[in-house]
Model the fold of this input.
Amino acid sequence: MSKVHDLIIIGAGPAGLACAIYTTREYIDTVVFEKGVIGGLAAVTDVIDNYPGFPDGVGGLQLSDALQKQAERFGAKIEFGEVQKITKKDKVITLHTTDGDYKTKTVLVAIGSEYKKLDVPGEKEYYARGVHYCATCDGAFYKDKEIAVVGGGNSAIQESIFLTRYAKKIELLVRSTIKASSVLQKELQKYIDEGKIVVHLNTSVKEIKGENGLVNNIVINEDSKEEVMKVDGIFIFVGLIPNTGFLKDYVELDNIGLIKTDNNLMTNVPGIFAAGDVRSGATLQIASASGDGATAALRIREFLEHKKLATY
Amino acid sequence: MPKSVTIFTTNTCGYCSMVKKYLSNKGVSYKEVNLDDEPQRQQEALALSGVLTVPVTVVEKTDDSREVIVGYNLAKLAPAIA
Ligand SMILES: Cc1cc2nc3c(=O)[nH]c(=O)nc-3n(C[C@H](O)[C@H](O)[C@H](O)COP(=O)(O)OP(=O)(O)OC[C@H]3O[C@@H](n4cnc5c(N)ncnc54)[C@H](O)[C@@H]3O)c2cc1C
Done:
């Protein structure tokens, strides 16, 4: 029989890596599975201003590298692959991954979320040909160009500000009103005053069009009036959806697909825990995801030691 | 082992550093074209990949064939450098 690990963490974002730092430091044999980028969404964020301990902010990539090094220093093994299914027989949990089957006594699901799509004509067709969901990845292609950013939450405002370093003008399309934090709104105002960002409230995107395989305009509806806006690209930040499709018949989810846990961060399946953005009730911050990871680590240790978990 | 590997990157792209880490772990050396430093080479990246995104990894094989891999895509990257 293949080795049964103590813990497998799915997702090497801040929640997964924080948990791995704690568990490996306590000699709990830990494997981390990552299908994308180590650091998760933190790794694709330019600068993080509100993670404690960094008075001048910290680069997303820099923080991700540091988390990885810290986890590996204590012995965490990071495997590249996607977990596609979980099954459990007796007390052994099997993770079916793109890299084969792995067995474990406990699992931490720390898989975060991914970007929501607009679901409008042209969005799929022009993906990465003018339609983008990652400013730090694709922004450089829009030096001195005119682009649209869709969304009014923290991510949309933060990414619009980031994109001003490339684009000469940004049309910020907001379905209702701006919901970002007051700190971000204050910063945004500077770019509005400079004329670099133009805000369009009550505006939705109806269609994305292009020529020669690349986006060259979008159809918008602003205050119930339809018009064509000429842009070279469109960046979409309209929220996140949980990555939990592969778990839906196995662990209990809430009505938006986030994983329900008890106060020990354990799901309805004994031995399977959840932490970070994917947990129902999470506050969607790097600091809180890391905190969740630490809490989960301590509860997982208790579970492995057959201690009765606290009931609240 | 491939004959040569070139990666088109930018300073802030998380997936670019994943490709670089992966190649380094496998002992494969590569040339990097940073499009923040050399924006004039964006058209070259677009012509190779057909898309406006990085990383774009170009693997030149010993039989002189060439494979272009967009993004951090291990399913394509792993066999291409084998
Ligand atoms: C644009 C933007 C800006 C942000 N700015 C800030 C900020 O300034 N400050 C702040 O505190 N927070 C910020 N956030 C939020 C923050 O990034 C998240 O709250 C945090 O990254 C959540 O961590 P996590 O570990 O729960 O999930 P994630 O960071 O999403 O990591 C989950 C990981 O799991 C992997 N994964 C998913 N499914 C599987 C699978 N089946 N198998 C293997 N691996 C899998 C994913 O590839 C991913 O790497 C921002 C978010 C965005 C989108």
Notes: The mean pLDDT of chain B is 93. Strands of chain B lie at 4-9, 31-34, 56-60, 66-70. The longest strand of chain B covers residues 4-9.
